């Protein structure tokens, strides 16, 4: 029942929000040529789930109680869920995401989830990119009407009748020989950059 109510609320909030999408030229150049891995900050996942409903994506969702709730919600939005996290079931979950990628879907990872630190990229997304050969697309949103929770990630719940901007950054590729720490910094820098731009556009 809880996930059904959350679905109805999120659809109402999304349908009453004016959305603008901005894509980097590099992303536009490959968008229809391959599948890719989305990297999004944990705090922005609610509105981004709405904005990407029924778009052939599959998200990594933790095995926690909150993760169970989120998995049921996103499945109602037409988004696949692979259960696991960096702290529990991570290896098996990443293998499942590799299978999803090979089937042509777009894996989605919150690289600072499920418990932070906030806006800090962890290594799971690097491993996934190396094993699949897929580019990472940093994606974010800014929403003008929202509630910001006092959680570790400052989770954002969209409110109805607002404005939103969804931004897709430049693709980032990771090879088997790349410095993984440097690549994590590169993803983190790009994701923070476009998030700051999104927030500035709806301020």
Task: Please give a structural write-up.
With 203 residues, this protein is an alpha/beta fold. It has one domain (2-202). 41% of the residues lie in helices and 21% in strands. The protein has seven helices and nine strands, in the order αβαβαβαβαβαββββα. The protein has helices at residues 2-15, 25-30, 45-51, 65-76, 90-102, 124-132, 180-202, and strands at residues 18-23, 37-39, 57-61, 80-83, 106-109, 136-143, 146-148, 156-158, 163-168. The strands form two sheets. A seven-stranded mixed β-sheet has the order 1-9-6-2-5-3-4, sandwiched between helices. The protein has a two-stranded antiparallel sheet with strand order 7-8. The radius of gyration is 16 Å and the shape is globular. The model has no long low-confidence stretch (mean pLDDT 94).
Short précis:
The protein is of the alpha/beta class and 203 residues long. Helix content is 41%, strand content 21%.
What's the β-strand tally?
9
End-to-end CA span:
35 Å
Q: What is the domain tally? A: 1
In which range does the helix fraction lie? Answer: 40-55%
Work out the helix count.
Answer: 7
The radius of gyration computed from the alpha-carbon positions, rounded to a whole number of angstroms, is: 16 Å
Widest β-sheet, arrangement of strands = 1-9-6-2-5-3-4
- What's the mean pLDDT score? 94
Low-confidence segments, given as residue ranges, are none
Element-level helix/strand string: HEHEHEHEHEHEEEEH
């Amino acid at each position: 029942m809880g996930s059904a109510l959350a679905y109805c609320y999120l659809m109402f909030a999304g349908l009453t929000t004016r959305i603008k999408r901005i894509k980097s030229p590099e992303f536009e150049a490959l968008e229809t040529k391959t599948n890719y891995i989305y990297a999004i900050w944990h705090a922005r996942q609610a509105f981004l789930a709405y904005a990407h409903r029924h778009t052939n994506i599959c998200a990594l969702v933790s095995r926690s109680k909150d993760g169970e709730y989120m998995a049921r919600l996103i499945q109602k939005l037409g988004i696949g869920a692979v259960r696991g996290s960096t702290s529990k079931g991570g290896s098996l979950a990443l293998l499942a995401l590799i299978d999803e990628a090979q089937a042509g879907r777009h894996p989605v990872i919150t690289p600072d989830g499920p418990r932070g630190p906030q806006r800090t990229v962890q290594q799971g997304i690097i491993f996934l990119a190396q094993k699949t050969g897929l580019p990472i697309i940093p994606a974010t949103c800014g929403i003008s009407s929202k509630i910001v929770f006092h959680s570790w990630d400052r989770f954002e719940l969209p409110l109805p009748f607002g404005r939103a901007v969804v931004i897709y950054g430049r693709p980032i590729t990771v090879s088997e020989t790349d410095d993984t720490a440097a690549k994590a910094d590169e993803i983190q820098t790009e994701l923070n950059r476009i998030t700051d731009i999104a927030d500035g556009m709806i301020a």
